């Protein structure tokens, strides 16, 4: 009889616990819905994308395991001689690197003209240029000059390893105190001089300025003021763009690296220029061909590259 009483008392308690649990779940769900409603459309979209990415984590992990297993089976199915040759090939260096004598200088003397967030962008552009130069077929002699102010502060706080960077010269001095005047060529889109070829004995200066067109023509004026040569890349001869011909530091840097490797300005431009710039190739017959880059994708399908030929606008 005592056992029955205990059991009868336990049942209401269990029902109470279940009710509390359901109530708690309803409260959490209600709070989540309220949070979702307070988010902007863009934030909700981002949250949904993150949730989907989390839900598919295990599926991606399994796909990677399956691909690894498939490659292992394919290797094991090869004759022993072919397996040996493949392993030997993988151990060889991918390509022979031949350093260039050409110098590229990032002029960071515009620090005071930029907002802190734009200085952060310049920092990332220099990081990208350094990384690209390290793996280039013909790496250039890389200089960063006039380092100080906000840029140095950001590098010290967010990229402390910069002091250990290799194959780069970073100075607080102005480039004119490091390179002879007659060897300097300032690269600026406002210059009337078009650069047809690169002189390996020259030092080409890239303005380290992210200003969203607030200081148009400042690098050109600076070059004239200092009495040094100036030139622009032959962009208009090969490319028609929807936006101004002002490129980020790393894009100029990468274009020159690509030109040193390919020996073709056209190939260099379309290897590097971002799709958002709307770059189209200028042809000799007055037409231009749309070039689209293959974007990185997490999907298993290959990205499409679409080509379109249209009449050039005059």
Automatic annotation (TrEMBL):
GO terms (molecular function) for this protein are: tRNA (guanosine(9)-N1)-methyltransferase activity; tRNA binding
Q: Which GO terms describe its cellular component?
A: cytosol; nucleoplasm
The EC number(s) attached to this protein equal 2.1.1.221
InterPro entries listed in its UniProt record:
MT_TRM10-typ, MT_TRM10-typ_sf, TRM10/TRM10A, tRNA_m1G_MeTrfase_euk
The record places the active site at 211
Residue ranges constituting the SAM-dependent MTase TRM10-type domain according to the UniProt record: 90-280
Q: Does the keyword Acetylation apply?
A: no
**Keyword Ligase (UniProt):** no
Q: State where composition is biased (Acidic residues).
A: 293-303
Where does this protein have compositionally biased stretches of type Basic and acidic residues?
A: 71-85, 283-292, 304-314
Its Gene Ontology biological processes?
Answer: tRNA N1-guanine methylation
Q: Which reaction is the catalytic activity of this chain?
A: guanosine(9) in tRNA + S-adenosyl-L-methionine = N(1)-methylguanosine(9) in tRNA + S-adenosyl-L-homocysteine + H(+)
Which named protein is this?
tRNA methyltransferase 10 homolog A
According to its UniProt entry, this protein's organism is Eleginops maclovinus
